Amino acid sequence: MPLAKLGAAVAPGSLLTSAADLATYSYDGALERARPDAVLVARSAEDVRRAVAWCAAEKVPFVARGAGTNLSGGCVPLRGG
After folding, report:
1. In 1-81, which residue ranges form alpha helices assigned H by DSSP?
2. Most buried among 34, 47, 60, 76, by the most CB within 10 A?
3. Residue-number span of the structural domain to which 29 is assigned
4. How many domains does the chain have?
């Protein structure tokens, strides 16, 4: 997955790819866990727009996440992305 192109399009430091960072975003209040491929901590609406456009162009699934406090696994990726 060409994440470098996405990383260059968003605010510096906002694309997380380390195992430790991704572990934090692999669960919510539910029992299900799945590690994402990357996490964007958007700094602006433009970051979100660029990330969604990149995901669409690369056919990469994405999951929007708020505080991660839901109890249904709604912010946990089913497969990749």
Report:
1. 3-9, 19-24, 45-58
2. 76
3. 3-58
4. 1
